[in-house]
Amino acid sequence: MPDIQSTLKLSALALLLLILSLPSMINAGEAIDYAKGFRDMEWGASLSDWENLLQKSKNKIRPFKGYDRTGENLNWEGITAKSITYGFRRGKFGGLNIGFADKDVAAVLDAFSEKFGKPKKTNLFIMTNYEWHTDDLDISLISSKKGASINIKPK
Q1: Helix, strand, coil shares of the chain as percentages rounded to 5?
Q2: What is the pTM of this model?
Q3: Per-residue model confidence as pLDDT tens digits over 125-134
């Protein structure tokens, strides 16, 4: 028969595991309306309204100035992204770059094809480019052996 200390330790461990898994469970079914923006940041949002949550990014997403969000949840479209960079031009949110592992390209392609239809595919020497053009957005997914990224910007 287990003693009370063992039972308390197991209960505490189970509670800790539940608490640690909550963020991924909350965002697992996240539905993003990319035509409006990304998560709670709308296209055209002013950089000055978000400066306290952003820091300059090492990622370059020309012609934008890239910023990373402090404490960003990297769970996105059923995968764990390597980076999420918000692009600002003339002080307004106008572009998004999400970097992820090459092994996740199929999952991202499936998710975006379901939302935006079949992409235009172009095979380049060392990479493959997929593009979607909607009434509201230009989206490109670039994949190579080094990794992959998706760029989203409003029209």
Answers
A1: 30, 40, 30
A2: 0.78
A3: 899 999 999 9
